[in-house]
Amino acid sequence: MNNYILDLTGHDKMVLIKTVHGENEIDDSGYIKLEKVALMQYVDFQWFIEHYQELYEKYGCSYIVIKNKTVLGTYSNFREAVDATSLTENVGTFIVQECSGDESAYTMQLVSVSFT
């Protein structure tokens, strides 16, 4: 599993997330700007809401991993979704949303976190 650190120092009041292993497509310094990540997650969450009914019809009750308005996978629980997806994607660059068939599933947004 990838490990991540939260770096709050010396970056002009901008919170940055740095991958410990240094693999990061967004910024060659190894940092992901939190503002960009938050925007990406917001766009993906809006896409999830707009396509909720068709996602439910296709995947049923599940936890759906979304990045760049694309379903990366579906899982039976949140932790499995994050663990499996973090093998190929940087934590923080995708969202995991429960899809249960009613709006209660998206009244709370779940974002990827590290389970180390």
Could you characterize what this model shows?
The strands form 2 sheets. The chain has a 4-stranded antiparallel beta sheet, sandwiched between helices. It has a 3-stranded antiparallel beta sheet with strand order 1-2-3. It is globular, with a radius of gyration of 15 Å. It contains 3 helices and 7 strands, in the order E-E-E-H-H-E-E-H-E-E. It is of the alpha+beta class and 116 residues long. It has a domain at 34-111.
List the helices and strands and how they pair.
Elements: E1 4-7, E2 16-19, E3 31-33, H1 34-50, H2 52-59, E4 62-67, E5 70-75, H3 78-85, E6 95-99, E7 110-111
Antiparallel strand pairs: 1-2, 2-3, 4-5, 4-6, 6-7
What are its keywords?
alpha+beta; 116 residues; 3-stranded antiparallel beta sheet
What would you say about this model in short?
It is built from three helices and seven strands. The protein is α+β, with helices and mostly antiparallel strands and 116 residues long.
Percent in helix: 25-40%
Could you give the order of the helices and strands? EEEHHEEHEE
User: What is the alpha-carbon Rg in Å?
Assistant: 15 Å
What is the chains' assembly state? Answer: single chain
Largest sheet: 4 strands, antiparallel
